[in-house]
Amino acid sequence: GLVEKILPLFNCNQKLALSAIRAAGNIAASIDEHTQYLLDHSIYQYIAPLLSCTNQKIRKEVYWLLSNIAAGTRAQMLTLFSLNIFHQIIRDLEQGEYSVQREACWIISNVLHSSTIEEAQPFIESKVLFFMKKFLISKDTPMIIVVVEVLLILLRVIYFTQFSYIQVIISSNIFVKKLKNQECWIV
């Protein structure tokens, strides 16, 4: 089938690789069964070499594909942990081009939506919210919503694990201050 033909193209020239990754991303964006088909056909074997690629266009497409996998079933989301890529994703959230930062944020959001308290804990420790704050001051409404959702998820986790820490965050009003200073309000 199609999957067996496009996966080897991930490691071809940039133009062909981008098209193949985008096609796989569209497959993963459809239904959970299609995402599972990609996983069953060792998609990570083809993605792994691309994770160290410095090309931001390829990185963006790979992250979009991974965010679609993260948005699948809980079992599919958990497969991302085997790649050991969250440090890199968080680094790209801080330093990547805007399009890469955006997809990195979506991966983290999709992972956190299905995570347990234990699985979400490393994201709190990584200070991921600090790197997401740039979206709160952007005019990118979907990203503002995603960051607020991530904030709520992480605050719930912190509430259950570090109640004193959450009191500090709430009393600082850091997110309220950022939102009040914005001209663009979500309606």
From TrEMBL:
Organism of origin: Henneguya salminicola (Myxosporean)
Family: Belongs to the importin alpha family.
Protein name: Importin subunit alpha-3 (Trinotate prediction)
Superkingdom of source: Eukaryota
Leader sequence segment: none
Gene3D superfamilies: Leucine-rich Repeat Variant (1.25.10.10)
Sorted UniProt keywords: Membrane, Protein transport, Transmembrane, Transmembrane helix, Transport
Regions that span the bilayer: 142-161
Keyword flag Ion transport: no
Keyword hit for Transmembrane helix: yes
GO biological process, one term: protein transport
